[in-house]
Amino acid sequence: MRSKVLFIPLIFLCWNCTAQSALDKSFDQMNNREIDQTVFKIHKNYPQVSQRIVKISAHFLGIPYRLGPLGEGSHGEFDGKPLISFSAVDCTTFVEETMALSLASDLNQAKEILKRIRYKGGVVSYQTRNHFPSVDWIPNNIAAGFIKDITARIAGPDIEVASKWISKEKWYREKKLSDIEGLPKMSPQEKENLLQKLRRLGESTPDQEAQIPYLPIRDFEDRLSEIPSGTIANLVRADLSDKPVLISHQVFIIQKGGETYIRHAAFDSVVKDVPALEYFSRYENSKWPLLGINLDEVVGPNKSQNK
Q1: pLDDT in tens, 143-190
Q2: What are phi and psi of 95, to 5 degrees?
Q3: What is the rounded distance in angstroms from the CA atom of residue 50 to the CA atom of residue 231?
Q4: Distance (Å, rounded) from C-alpha 298 to C-alpha 143?
Q5: What Cα–Cα distance (Å) separates residue 298 from each residue in 52, 99, 183, 290?
């Protein structure tokens, strides 16, 4: 009898360990049904979007980095990679997919929201994709109501503004064959013809001046603890002629255990948490100076766009 009494708790303990390990799995280890269940539970238990950002993004930890893992799907003209995937992420697709799953309680709804986050007006095409954070991603997502700039609230009188002229015409003109992706059945000649078409997309696009408010790097240590957990931080760099962008990286600010962390898709690594001061210290002697961070709160889509 004594052995039977001991056996029942052992079964319970083993089941409990299995259930706990399932809760800790990253999205790339789940099937769609498990993702739906996980996302639904998070939405049920955490009513605030910022809370869901923290919980959802945690399920990306350990997922490998890959530059440009998403495209326009099977109907994409220049990029046929899937519209949504959790097998790999880069810095922006990690932010986008976390946002979509935090704003929708099931995977199908999240896919629709993701289209509106990644593409201007929700129109899926290479040309309407929000390629440049400074002149596409941030302003278009503010206009759509998905994010709100809170840089001024955090930086106060110390806020500064960075500016740069963005040349999409030059960016398109410098495209290479390696930028034509996810189209395996295309012949080399067809791919070359498509590349020439891609390069011409920017011919009638005028240069745009990006103006991005930021919390200066000198004020990081004093202000980091004031940034709400789940905030998007965009790394604002100096305007260098050989760099086509002003924002080089997108991350989440995570507050936990009284410390501030950077949760991001690290280049050539995985999604990870890094103590904020340790993370930003890496840029101290960079040849491409880090000016500061632009801060965006995820708030949800404009109600008028849901009608």
Answers
A1: 999 999 999 999 999 999 999 999 999 999 999 999 999 998 889 999
A2: -65, -45
A3: 7
A4: 13
A5: 10, 7, 34, 23
